[in-house]
């Protein structure tokens, strides 16, 4: 199973209490399930509003269960940002 780094930004970072963590997951859906299990509560609510980058590429509207993760990859968790 690939080991990936999940990096949290802005409100996601505040809710997780850490900037990044390692997870074992084959897909984005599996990684996010593991994040929710480790951080029930506020982070779970924040994730509903987030967009995600996988190794720098936007996930967009693809189903999270279809987004494969590579060993050593990075998942960026991006809440909506204010301002411009």
Description:
The protein is an alpha+beta fold and 84 residues long. The protein has a single domain (1-76), classed as Beta-grasp domain (Ubiquitin-like (UB roll)), CATH 3.10.20. 29% of the residues lie in helices and 26% in strands. The chain has three helices and five strands; from the N terminus they run βαβααβββ. It has helices at 10-16, 28-38, 42-47; strands spanning 3-8, 20-24, 51-54, 57-58, 74-78. The protein has a five-stranded mixed β-sheet with strand order 2-1-5-3-4. The longest helix is centred in the middle third of the chain and has 11 residues, at 28-38. The radius of gyration is 12 Å and the shape is globular. The mean pLDDT is 95. GO terms for molecular function: nucleotide binding. One of its GO terms (cellular component) is molybdopterin adenylyltransferase complex. It comes from Streptomyces aquilus. This is Molybdopterin synthase sulfur carrier subunit. Belongs to the MoaD family.
Keywords:
five-stranded mixed beta sheet, Ubiquitin-like (UB roll), alpha+beta, 84 residues, globular, 3 helices
Report a brief summary of the structure.
With 84 residues, the protein is an alpha+beta fold. The chain has 3 helices and 5 strands, in the order E-H-E-H-H-E-E-E. 21% of the residues are buried.
SSE topology:
Elements: E1 3-8, H1 10-16, E2 20-24, H2 28-38, H3 42-47, E3 51-54, E4 57-58, E5 74-78
Parallel strand pairs: 1-5
Antiparallel strand pairs: 1-2, 3-4, 3-5
